[in-house]
Design a protein that fits this description.
This protein is α/β, with parallel strands linked by helices. It contains three helices and three strands, in the order βαβαβα. 18% of the residues are buried.
Length: 78
């Protein structure tokens, strides 16, 4: 499973519950993607969740992606 979060405590708590439920169902967590980075939200749930579950942070998607952002994210994942 891929966990997607935004930089808020509420999202971190919701994604933590989803990760635990997925693991209980024998799903394999692949990593964390943080969406809406650098916007009006404050927090760093990606690092908390990644450390807690022992999974990598796969990508951080900016709040307002610039041209080429998606290509850069895909290239960095390869």
């Amino acid at each position: 499973m891929l966990a997607v979060t935004i930089p808020t405590p509420e999202s971190r708590h919701a994604v933590r519950r989803a990760l635990r439920a997925a693991i209980d169902l024998k799903a394999t967590p692949l990593g964390v993607v943080e969406n809406m980075v650098g916007g009006p939200f404050d927090g760093a749930p990606r690092t908390n969740l990644a450390a807690e579950f022992g999974i990598p942070v796969l990508a951080r998607v900016p709040f307002h992606p610039a041209d080429g952002t998606w290509e850069d994210i895909v290239r960095s994942a390869l």
